[in-house]
Amino acid sequence: MSELAIKQTFSLAPQNLDEALKFADYLANSDIVPKDFQRKPANILVAVQWGMELGLQPMQAMQSIAVINGRPSLWGDAVIALVRSSPLCEYVYETDDGETASCRVKRVGEDEQTRTFSMTDAQQAGLKGKQGPWAQYPKRMRQMRARSFALRDAFPDVLRGMPMAEEVQDIPTERELNQSLPRKTEEPKVLAAYPDSKLEESSEKWRGLIAGGRTDPDHIISTITSKYTITPEQEERIRALAPIEGEATNESA
């Protein structure tokens, strides 16, 4: 075989597991692969395997497969490329009237199918005006949604059930869902009423502590109300335990 022929048949596609592991290590250390795969040989290995099942070469797989929220998916251009290259596809036509995107597809031996996605649909899905591509490129995003619905419905076998990255990006994460849900307000804790019997038992002790300057009615009330509710009458009785200023002066004299 000539040197030119050897160059033309050269391929990076691994032929066995050992080659695949080495291939993944080499590419993980390269700066020309997407960031999702840099320094992540395991991600490369999975992407290459997915690509092989879809009919993509390893380098194509890494450019076409994205991992979004832990879920592998295909970018929209790769999806339509796979479908159009399949012998099962007769045609794919896409249109947009400025409000609604349409995707018409025809599978061999079946009737034409059409899927649409409008700005009304986008609004109902909470996508209209959403920060990012939906605010900057609504026409392109409508096109991707209509394409995703049509191609995944008509050619699930060609796509092996892989979702489109543009659609997966719009699915809220569990964290976003939790943030959007109304938080359950905790009901205030109902404290038990403070028994009069305890007040009677403690009154003389508190009177002595107050007289000795070791506590005061406010402190006693604060301590009780951290565990119980007290009535205005009980609070008044506790405050009455403090000696009247004139009485304290006479005693000290």
From TrEMBL:
GO terms for molecular function: DNA binding. Pfam families: RecT. One of its GO terms (biological process) is DNA metabolic process. It comes from the Bacteria. This is Recombinase RecT. It comes from Pseudomonas veronii 1YdBTEX2.
